[in-house]
Amino acid sequence: MVKDDKRRLIASLEIVTGVGLILFWLAFFTVGLAPEKAPPCYFAYENSFPLPDGILAVLLLIAGILLMKSNPAGRILSLVGAGALVFLGLLDFSFNLQNGIYLTSVIDLVLNAFINLWCVVFGLAVCIVAGMMEN
Q: What pTM was computed for the model?
């Protein structure tokens, strides 16, 4: 059985991650987070993500809120969101590695590596913790 503090931590981090996704896209389209020397395919790739990332952000927010309230649907939505996070992180990692995004600047390396690592590690952690929760 997962202790209440782990459930609350996962719920809080899901909410922070959901808000982070929304803030990322707001910054991407307003401040401009694209690398200076982005490959030609970069914007076509990135512009395909706002809709699924937006849905994922809402999913994580709802999952986190329901998990905080000990609602069984929170566990199920957490597992769905966790799988999506792992997929997102690995997809971005693959794209960034193949297209040299990590090498464009130290800022791009740190920002993209952190986001990719967070998605994969946090997603796997949620899978493990939520998988041990009782409904």
A: 0.92
